[in-house]
Amino acid sequence: MGTPTDETARQYRGRLAPTPSGFLHLGHARTFARAVRRARERGGKIILRIEDIDRERCKSEYAKAAIDDLRAAGFSWDEGPDVGGDFGPYVQSLRFELYRRALLNLIRGGRVYPCEVSRSRIREESAAEEAAHAARPKPFDDAECEPLFPLRLRNAGGERLARRAAQNPFSFNWRFAAREGERVRFCDGNFGEMIFEAQKDFGDFLVWRKCGAPSYELAVCADDAAMKITEVVRGADLLLSTARQLLLYRALGLNPPEFFHCRLMRDADGKKMSKSSMRECRAESMLIRNSPEAAGEFLKRDL
Q1: Which of 73, 120, 143, 178 could connect to 239 by a Cys-Cys bridge, CB 3.0–4.6 Å?
Q2: Same domain, 220 and 262
């Protein structure tokens, strides 16, 4: 990977980061257009990165389609898998050594622990806790929430699990130990000051999966730092993810980028537009590949 010059370090660097688990839709186009416009207005660069760490859901044909469809709609970028650049590779599945080093740094720093608790048990115990107390309020309308990991399960595996995980760390689930009451505060470029509290708005979260892959949060933190990204533009459904990522940046000793979260594009029923919803309602006209002109219009608007 390239070594940045002083000029690169000061320059605005944004990114488009599609996940090739399906065809891109107009919601992606609107968010990506905002990212491109913010970079161009600041004399900066846009990087295209394919985020394909989910080996079960991501397919090479969708990665190719993402590039082709965005190009057809009029999008362009300065670095990426098809044009190269100093900070490649620009495909996450080719960057696993970086993620392994990040995990080992977290293990050495004592910020993560191995965990074999199943998702079903987490859901059951979290639901029981919420039923016994006041319902957990949603911190933000568009923010996606998940069940809080019960703190009493943090050391469920004991010393035996710790010893096994130490011998082969990349074959175990690892969770980040979020310190109860720790606040994450940041100024979002769109929504202003945001404040989230650990063990209230989110709990201990996965950073590594036993299949040998990093979580989304760990991968993008490592990548954005390595690629010198200065601002991340993305949907508001990732606000809670941003809070978790900022904890990872602190733990890894990395400088975080700034963040700009866009309101989500919704369908006629008010539901979040997503790849799965596109498939369910067979709304092919909302895909970028079928409406390149509509997607390209977002590049011309004040969003």
Answers
A1: 143
A2: yes
